[in-house]
Specification:
single chain; alpha+beta; Tumour Suppressor Smad4; 2 domains; 38% strand; binds adenosine-5'-triphosphate; binds magnesium ion; ATP-binding; metal-binding; lipid kinase activity
């Protein structure tokens, strides 16, 4: 049985010191909203708290954190089926690409109001290799090593653009490599430099990688950058959103990627490495509380 209005806020431990949020939680409780708070320490905690929210009969589970936290909560909700609580979002991460793409307010107080009282909408999720989920985007490419620093070589070669590409992929060596991508009525083979598969539109801190994506159309937007031209000009065209012969674009319900060498996809910012990826949309997988001006709804 659901407890009307009850909500559980799952807060990434990185955001636990936010005073504005503490005040906003207090204010809502004074209004009579039954709001519990749990704080995560590591991967896996969020999913356990989602299970607790179901036991408590919560109508809403609120993810307080970045894209990675939303990913964990959304994935756990999707596995519950039809009677799952709705997802609310408080953006407390570094990039917050999903929340920003949805026009969710960045102020914790306003985001919390929306998360508890906002309109519920059915949205799609994407599933990868039957095991992983993403709510916002999978960005992939070929690289040898994952690092957290922008490498000096790339910076010297590309200037400011390297920050963008690095932020997008978090790879220290960007190489093109051959891969094969197949989907319904779609087939592509060639050298890919960057691949974006979007449920949402933006990644890498505001870059519109998949500008036509919608989160409730039952499709994923594939955008890939091929490597037949000099790197800096591609990147410019991607940044400016100009269509270009080096950009392949398709909207697909599923796709399969096969590569002879390892490639790494970031699923909402969390890395997954392999040679084969099957990515499929799960239409209407969860319910989410979104603002009326959410740009990702069709
Ligand atoms: N207390 C904690 N301290 C540090 N990391 C945590 C903690 N609790 C969970 N995590 C980990 O944080 C990661 C998710 O971080 P999240 O994406 O929410 O923030 P971010 O990376 O700063 O934001 P964004 O992805 O929007 O740039 C997950 O891998 C999760 O396991
Ligand atoms: Mg993250």
């Amino acid at each position: 049985m659901k407890d009307t209005g009850a909500a559980l806020l799952i807060l990434n431990g990185k955001g636990a010191g936010n005073e504005e949020l503490r005040e906003a939680v207090g204010a809502l409780r004074e209004e009579g909203v039954k709001l519990s708070v749990r704080v995560t320490w590591e991967y896996g905690d969020a999913a356990r708290y989602v299970a607790e929210a179901v036991e408590l009969g919560c109508e809403t589970v609120i993810a307080g954190g970045g894209d990675g936290t939303i990913n964990e909560v959304a994935g756990a909700l999707a596995q519950l089926g039809a009677d799952a609580p709705a997802l609310g979002i408080i953006p407390l991460g570094t990039a917050n690409d999903f929340a920003t793409g949805c026009n969710i307010p960045l102020s914790p107080e306003q985001a919390l109001q929306l998360a508890v009282k906002g309109r519920v909408v059915d949205i799609d999720l994407a599933k990868v290799n039957d095991q992983h989920f993403f709510i916002n985007m999978a960005t992939g490419g070929f690289g040898t090593r994952i690092t957290t620093e922008t490498p000096e070589k790339l910076k010297a070669a590309l200037g400011g653009v390297s920050y963008f590409i690095h932020g997008l992929l978090r790879l220290d060596t960007l190489k093109a490599d051959s891969c094969e991508i197949k989907g319904p009525d779609f087939s592509w083979q060639g050298d890919a430099l960057v691949i974006g598969i979007g449920n949402g539109r933006q990644a890498g801190g505001g870059q519109q990688i998949c500008p036509d994506a919608l989160i409730n159309d039952g499709l994923l937007q594939l955008r890939l950058l091929t490597s037949e031209e000099l790197l800096p000009s591609f990147l410019r065209s991607l940044i400016n959103n100009e269509e270009n012969k080096n950009i392949v674009s398709a909207s697909l319900p599923w796709l399969e990627i096969n590569a002879p060498h390892d490639m790494t996809f970031n699923l909402d910012g969390e890395p997954l490495t392999g040679k084969r990826f099957r990515i499929e949309v799960l239409p209407n997988a969860i319910q989410c509380r979104l603002p009326p001006n959410c740009e990702l709804l069709g």
